[in-house]
C-alpha cells in the first residue's frame, strides 16, 4: 500500500474538531510510558514534549506506509498521524516530529501528506511533536493548548503548560475521586443546578474522547470516567455503546450515591455556612434538589441508604435557627397537622412547634415534594403567638 492509499484509510479517522489534534498526541505520550508531559504555546508554534519509548527513524521515512504495513504494534504512530491530519486542516507551515534514542535521533518535517522530509539530528531529548502556524496566528497555539488542558482532567501523567494563563482554581465543594478495576473518574457538584441531566466526560488513556448526557438517579452532577477498554468510533471522537460504556456509567451512578451520602454527612457544616437571605451554599441547594426528586412520590422506601440519609439529615433551618430534617418535621406532623414555614428568621423565637425558614422556592419545592399539600406559611404575628392549628396540641 502506498502512502496515498494509507492516507485514504487514515482519513476515516479524522477528528471532528481539528483544533483537538493535541489530544491524540497526549495519548501517544501515555502509550510511550512518559513520566511527564509538557505542552508549550510559544509565538505561532505549539509543542508537546514527553519522554518514554522513542520512535524509530524508519517509521517516519514514509509514516503512512509504516502504519499501513503494521509497523505500529503499540498504536503510537496512529495517534501521531491522526493528530497530524487534524493539524493539517488548520493550514500550518509545518508539522514536526523529533525523536529517537541517543545517537539515532531524527527530525521529521511535513507541510502536508506527500510533502515531507527526514533528517538526522545530533542531539536532543525525548519526543517533541510540534506545529508551526503562519506568522501572525498568535492565538491558534494557545487555543489548541487550552483545548488539551480541558480534556485532561483524568490524565494520570503530570501535564505542565507553558505560555497559557494560570488555570483558575476549581471552586470548593463536594467532589469524589474514585477508582475501580479498569476504571477511574470523578463526580462533583454540577456547575449549574438547573440542568435536567448530567454531563459525563468519557476518556481513554486519561484524555477525553467524548461526552454523553445522562439523567442519573437522585441527583445530577459533573462527572468524568476513564476506561482504556472503551471501544471508539471510526473518527476516534466517540465511544460506542456496549458493555464497557454501560459498566462505566453504572460506576458513575454508584459514585453519585456516595457523593450524596457524603453531602448528607456534612450537611450540618454546610448548613452552618448559609449566609444572608437566599445566599445558600451550592452543596445545600444540590441536596434539596436531590431530596425533592427522591420524595416526589412520597417518603416511602426509606430502606434505600440515600433516601434515608436525605430524610434524616438536617438540611433546613428553623425560624429559631435550629437545624431541622424532614424526619423532624414528620415527627411533629401528627400533633401540628401541617408543616409550618415562614419567610422570617428570628433567632430569639420560642415556638411550641418547629417552623422551617423558607426564603426560597427551592426550599418550598423540596418540602412540598416530601409533604404534598401540608405546607402552611405563618406570618410573624402568628409565629409570635406560637401559632398552630387549634386542637392539635
Write a brief structural summary.
The protein has 393 residues and is α+β, with helices and mostly antiparallel strands.
Write structural notes for this entry:
The structure is a single chain. The chain has 3 domains: 3-162, 2-Layer Sandwich (Heat Shock Protein 90), CATH 3.30.565; 175-264, no CATH class; 268-384, no CATH class. The chain has 12 helices and 17 strands. The chain has helices at residues 3-10, 22-31, 63-68, 76-88, 139-151, 243-265, 267-272, 282-294, 305-312, 326-336, 361-370, 380-384; strands spanning 37-42, 45-50, 94-99, 106-110, 116-120, 127-132, 159-162, 175-180, 183-188, 198-204, 207-214, 222-226, 314-317, 323-325, 339-342, 356-357, 375-377. It is elongated and about 90 Å long.
Strand-helix topology:
Blueprint: H1 3-10, H2 22-31, E1 37-42, E2 45-50, H3 63-68, H4 76-88, E3 94-99, E4 106-110, E5 116-120, E6 127-132, H5 139-151, E7 159-162, E8 175-180, E9 183-188, E10 198-204, E11 207-214, E12 222-226, H6 243-265, H7 267-272, H8 282-294, H9 305-312, E13 314-317, E14 323-325, H10 326-336, E15 339-342, E16 356-357, H11 361-370, E17 375-377, H12 380-384
Parallel strand pairs: 1-7, 10-12, 15-16, 15-17
Antiparallel strand pairs: 1-2, 2-6, 3-4, 3-6, 4-5, 8-9, 9-12, 10-11, 13-14
Amino acid at each position: 500500500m502506498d502512502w496515498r492509499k494509507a492516507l485514504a484509510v487514515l482519513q476515516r479517522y479524522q477528528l471532528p474538531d481539528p483544533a483537538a489534534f493535541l489530544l491524540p498526541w497526549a495519548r501517544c505520550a501515555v502509550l510511550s510510558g512518559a513520566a511527564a508531559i509538557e505542552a508549550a504555546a510559544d509565538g505561532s508554534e505549539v509543542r508537546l514534549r514527553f519522554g518514554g519509548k522513542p520512535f524509530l527513524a524508519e517509521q517516519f521515512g514514509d509514516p503512512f506506509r509504516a502504519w499501513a504495513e503494521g509497523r505500529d504494534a503499540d498504536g503510537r504512530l496512529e495517534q501521531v498521524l491522526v493528530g497530524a491530519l487534524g493539524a493539517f486542516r488548520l493550514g500550518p507551515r509545518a508539522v514536526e516530529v523529533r525523536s529517537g534514542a541517543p545517537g539515532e535521533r531524527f527530525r521529521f518535517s511535513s507541510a502536508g501528506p506527500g510533502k515531507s522530509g527526514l533528517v538526522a539530528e545530533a542531539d536532543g531529548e525525548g519526543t517533541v511533536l510540534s506545529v508551526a502556524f503562519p506568522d501572525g496566528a498568535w492565538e491558534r497555539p494557545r487555543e489548541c493548548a487550552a483545548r488539551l488542558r480541558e480534556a485532561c482532567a483524568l490524565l494520570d501523567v503530570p501535564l505542565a503548560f507553558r505560555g497559557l494563563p494560570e488555570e483558575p482554581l476549581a471552586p470548593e465543594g463536594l467532589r469524589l475521586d474514585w477508582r475501580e478495576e479498569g476504571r477511574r473518574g470523578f463526580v462533583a457538584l454540577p456547575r449549574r443546578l438547573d440542568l435536567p441531566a448530567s454531563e459525563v466526560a468519557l476518556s481513554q488513556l486519561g484524555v477525553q474522547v467524548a461526552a454523553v448526557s445522562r439523567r442519573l438517579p437522585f441527583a445530577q452532577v459533573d462527572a468524568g470516567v476513564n476506561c482504556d477498554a472503551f471501544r471508539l468510533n471510526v473518527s476516534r471522537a466517540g465511544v460506542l455503546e456496549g458493555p464497557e460504556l454501560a459498566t462505566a456509567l453504572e460506576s458513575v451512578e454508584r459514585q453519585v450515591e456516595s457523593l450524596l451520602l457524603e453531602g448528607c454527612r456534612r450537611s450540618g457544616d454546610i448548613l452552618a455556612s448559609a449566609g444572608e437571605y437566599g445566599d445558600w451554599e451550592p452543596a445545600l441547594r444540590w441536596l434539596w434538589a436531590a431530596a425533592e426528586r427522591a420524595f416526589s412520590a412520597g417518603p416511602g422506601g426509606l430502606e434505600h441508604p440515600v433516601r434515608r440519609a436525605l430524610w434524616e439529615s438536617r438540611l433546613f433551618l428553623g425560624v429559631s435557627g435550629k437545624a431541622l430534617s424532614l424526619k423532624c418535621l414528620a415527627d411533629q406532623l401528627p400533633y401540628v397537622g401541617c408543616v409550618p414555614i415562614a419567610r422570617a428568621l428570628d433567632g430569639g423565637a420560642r415556638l411550641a412547634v418547629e417552623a422551617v425558614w423558607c426564603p426560597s422556592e427551592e426550599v418550598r419545592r423540596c418540602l412540598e415534594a416530601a409533604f404534598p399539600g401540608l405546607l402552611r406559611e405563618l406570618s410573624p404575628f402568628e409565629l409570635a403567638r406560637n401559632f398552630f392549628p387549634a386542637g392539635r396540641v
